[in-house]
Amino acid sequence: MNSYIILSIIAIYFGILLLIAWITGRKSTSNDAFFLGNRKSPWYIVSIGMIGTSLSGVTFVSVPGMVRSIDMTYMQTVFGFFFGYILIAKVLLPLYYKLKLTSIYSYLGDRIGKRSYKTGASFFLLSKIVGAAARLYLVVLILQHYVFSTWNIPFWVTVIISIFLVWLYTYRSGIKTIIWTDTLQALCLVAMLVVIIWKVKDAMDLDMGGMVQTLTENPHFRIFEFNDWHSTQHFMKQFFSGIFITIVMTGLDQDMMQKNLSCKSLKDAQKNMYTYGFAFTPVNFLFLSLGVLLLTLASQQQIELPALSDDILPMFCTSGILGHSILIFFTIGIITAAFSSADSALTALTTSFCIDILGVEKEKAQSAKRTRLVVHLMISILFAIIILAFKAINNRSVIDAIYMIASYTYGPLLGLFVFGLFTKKHPRDKFVPYICIVSPLLCFLTDYLVKQHTGYAFGYEMLMLNGAITFGGLWLSSIGNGQLTIRKKSINT
């Protein structure tokens, strides 16, 4: 496929994003528009956009590939996601709307204290910027390898251009723009997924009925695992982990909640969450089904698969096996998946840093806007630096380790919010940062010792253990501490 055609498609796509940014930002570039979209976002548009945000570029290439090792058991986690969304809608959203929050972590300041507030926000900032940069790095690497290397464009140039484009269509109106651009990107992502599945079906010379039969008869179509308790794919582990992953990575994540808080009312935000929960399940099912079909096609045509599962889909889409036109659809899918996550993360990080760390709500409107613009630019530059650092390391195992470390940092957030919501106790604010640091370290040590002595490997359930240890530490620090004392400390510290 002519690389100039691909470049033209990318240019047209970003042209549309910039047009949307101009339309949404021409009347209002205030901080209120940037942070919360003036609280006027249509709930159904938010719901579609959240699908695009959740399905990153890593999801686009990794989920089909994971079928080779764990079949379709990831759906057990997805089922847990759905119930997690219901809990968010029923428990967390009413709290956020009642308090009229811009940053969800400000709740911790009111409930526990200033240091708890800063700790929660800091854990989010660390997790998000490293995780988002890692996801974007893997996608930019694919684009560089299969597209931009044709023109001998250096990797660092590709990174700078990618980050610059995201910055360009988000810097004016932030979430107000992203609500609409993410909707476009989500629709493109799902459309490209369907097109690729259709191409695979045609390559296997199947009709719709034959494709369904091929899927259901394949041994990789296994969804449930009830027998092996030691397996990380056991249903109970996957399902309940899915619930807590959703609560933490959606309900306690500024990136995802910022979109919900931009809705006109609590009722609209809840409708958005229910719709998003329903839609997210079949989309993941389609990704996994694509993985099964690719494995079947490889078996039928004696195609040698790459060693890394993440390379399976890119290999099929770039080798000509599915036709040369598929590279166009794959490129669009990668771009939409990558940048729908990157733009949301950039905006959420800017919001959290401005409000939680700098306290811009205390500044005058014009000064606060200047601060926000500077922070937005600085975080964009930091994104580029981190991605280039990943390239310098050039080791996927290191990236996997970074993902693991980032996942550990969500546990303290879970413990903090559960403690605040479901107890009336008041932990000593000055001890909270230390509790939140020690908890992931204890989890890491526990995982190592248990694996060494019993052979049991923790999976996603480590998140629950992390939250429980944080909760226990907060409980111990609250012994003998009264409400008046903690309130005084939270004000004076």
Blueprint (SSEs and pairs):
Layout: H1 3-25, H2 31-36, H3 43-54, H4 57-70, H5 74-99, H6 106-111, H7 114-146, H8 155-170, H9 175-203, H10 208-217, H11 235-251, H12 254-261, H13 266-300, H14 312-318, H15 326-357, H16 365-393, H17 396-408, H18 410-422, H19 432-454, H20 462-478, H21 483-492
Q: What CATH architecture of the largest domain would you give?
A: Up-down Bundle
* Morphology call: globular
Percent helix among the residues?
A: over 70%
- Report the radius of gyration as a whole number of Å: 23 Å
Main structural class = mainly alpha
Q: Largest sheet, if any? A: none
How much is the average pLDDT? 83
Stretches where pLDDT is under 50 for at least 5 consecutive residues are 484-493
Cα distance, first to last residue?
61 Å
CATH superfamily of the largest domain: Sodium/glucose cotransporter
How is the CATH topology of the largest domain named?
A: Sodium/glucose cotransporter
CATH class of the largest domain: Mainly Alpha
Describe the structure.
- The chain has 493 residues and is mainly alpha-helical.
- The protein has two domains: 3-397, Up-down Bundle (Sodium/glucose cotransporter); 409-493, no CATH class.
- The protein is built from 21 helices and no strands.
- It has helices at residues 3-25, 31-36, 43-54, 57-70, 74-99, 106-111, 114-146, 155-170, 175-203, 208-217, 235-251, 254-261, 266-300, 312-318, 326-357, 365-393, 396-408, 410-422, 432-454, 462-478, 483-492.
- It is globular.
- It starts with a helix and ends with a helix.
- Mean pLDDT is 83; it is low at 484-493.
